[in-house]
Each structure stands twice: as C-alpha cells, then as structure tokens.
Amino acid sequence: MRHRELAVAGAYAFEPDVFGDERGTFASPYQQKAFVAAVGRPLFPVAQVSRNVSRRGVVRGIHYTLTPPGTAKYVHCAGGRVLDLVVDLRVGSPTFARWDAVELAADTGRAVYFPPGVGHAFVALEDDSVVCYLLSAEYRAENELTLSVFDEEIGVRLPDGPPPILSERDRTARTLGEAAACGLLPEYIR
C-alpha cells in the first residue's frame, strides 16, 4: 500500500494494490501497517461505520465536528467514483484553510484519513457512488457542523459536470469567516 500526505497537515491518501482476474478485483482499502508507517500510530478505535449512496452531481459537505470531542474519519469509495475533498478548519494549523482533493473509486480502493478538526466534502462523479466511513466517534447531531463548499475564502474548485445537488443544510451553510466569528472552528492540536 502506498500513501502520501495531502496539502492538509495530518491528512493522508492511501492506495492499496488491486489484484484482478477473470472474477473481478480484490483490494484492502485499510492496512494497519501502512497506516502506522504514515501516521505514526494505529487507526483510532472504530465507534461507527457509515455509508451513503449518491447520484452524479451530489455534493455533500463541508462537514466537520465540534472539537473537542472531534471525530477522525477513514473514508473510501465502495461503488462508483467521487472527488473527495479535505479542508483544514483547525485554527492555528500550519495549513489552515488549505484544501486538497483525491479521487476515490471502487476500482482503486484508494482511501483518505481525516484527523479531528479537518473538514470533509465530496462530489459524486457517477450515479450510485457509495462512500463508506470508519468514524472514531458515534454520530451526535449537536456536534455536527457544516461550512459552505462555495466559500470563496476556502476556494474549493468543484469539477465540471451537472449543477451541484446539495441538501438544504449544505446549501445554507456558514462561511469560514462566519464560523470563526461564532467560535465554531476547531483548534489545531499537535
């Protein structure tokens, strides 16, 4: 398994070997030895596994959790294809407000690790794209926050395609500046 650090401090992309034959393919999107080599510790204890299915053009995010308690994520695409977006929302981080993108697809097994305080969004590039999450904490609505993926201060560039399809919550999300003014951004913890 190969890994690379993303433009957001502490976030990594992982790419396993994919083995194929006449039956199809096999890959292991998470491998502890490779994760420890990159991050320096094992993956967090998994408190919840979640998944969603999205049609082409769906944009989900930028989502993050109050920190503390914070939630780390390990994300891969089990069906279809998505452009996964990593956004540093941690005040004091050397990469604050920086973002990076990784294409995740079922046929590559590629995955992304998000440390607590880092925002997550994605754009579904195909119908029936399935995104799976390993989470360090269970979902708690009162800890879940969202920022606008269209915030010019962050400057995320979405891929060309159909008009974006967003939930009402994501469509009316705060900007980075508004969240900062309300004290809703996580602090960077080394």
From TrEMBL:
The record marks Y139 as: Participates in a stacking interaction with the thymidine ring of dTDP-4-oxo-6-deoxyglucose. InterPro entries: RmlC-like, RmlC-like_jellyroll, RmlC_Cupin_sf. One of its GO terms (cellular component) is cytosol. GO terms for biological process: dTDP-rhamnose biosynthetic process; polysaccharide biosynthetic process. Pfam families: dTDP_sugar_isom. One of its GO terms (molecular function) is dTDP-4-dehydrorhamnose 3,5-epimerase activity. It comes from the Bacteria. The active site is at H63 (proton acceptor), Y133 (proton donor). Belongs to the dTDP-4-dehydrorhamnose 3,5-epimerase family. This is dTDP-4-dehydrorhamnose 3,5-epimerase. The gene is rfbC.
